[in-house]
Amino acid sequence: VDRIVQVTIPSVDVLWVIDNSCSMEEEQVALTSNFSSFMGYFTGSGLDYHVGVVSTDMDSGSHSGKLREDMGVRYIDTTFNQSDAIASFNRRAHMGTSGSWNERGRDAVWAALIQHGSSINSGFYRDDAALSIVAISDEDDQSISVNVHEFISWLQSMKSEADMVSFSSIVGPQGGCSTAAEGTEYLQVTRAVGGIEWSICDGNWSQVLTELG
Description:
By secondary structure, this protein is α/β, with parallel strands linked by helices. It contains seven helices and five strands. A five-stranded parallel sheet has the order 2-1-3-4-5, with helices on both faces. Helix 1 runs antiparallel to helix 3 and helix 5 packs parallel to helix 6. The longest helix is centred in the middle third of the chain and has 12 residues. The chain is globular, with a radius of gyration of 17 Å.
C-alpha cells in the first residue's frame, strides 16, 4: 500500500485600505510604527500570504484601487523576510495626506479586486485563499459606485465558506470622538461579514495589530 499525504498550505490575501486624506498623518505613523505586531504572525509561519495596500482616494489616477507599489512589486509575499516586509509595508502605507477628502473605501476595494484584479493588481487576489480586508479611516465611507448593501452581498458570495472573508474596521466609534467621525458604514460591513472593530481614537495600535495578526 502506497500512502500519499497531501498537505494544503493555508493561504490568505490581506488588503489594507488606508485613508490618505489631510487628517490622517498621525494614524499612518502609528500604523507603520507598530506594524511588526501584525507582520510577525506571518513571516516564518508557513502561511502563504499576500499583503497589499490601497488608499481611499478614488479621484487620483495613481491611486483609484491600484495596489501601492514598492521595489517594483505590488504586494508583499513569502519572498520577503520579516524586516524587508515591515519596511516595504511602511513605505506603502505611509503615503502622505494629500489624498481626496472624499474617502471611498468600498469603491477602492472593488476597484482593487475587480477593476484592476486581472491587470495592474494581477496575482494579488486568489480564489482559493482567505480574504481579509482592513479599513482605516477617521471619516465614514463615502463610496458612490458600490452601496453598502451590494458590497456586503458581494463579499458574502466571494468564497465557498463564510469564514474565509473578513472585513475589519479601524474607524471612528459610535458617536465619533474629537478626532474622528463615526465610521457607520464601515462598521455595518464588519458586523455583517465578520471582523474586528476598533476605535481609531484608541492609541493602542500594537494591541489591535496583534489581534488582526
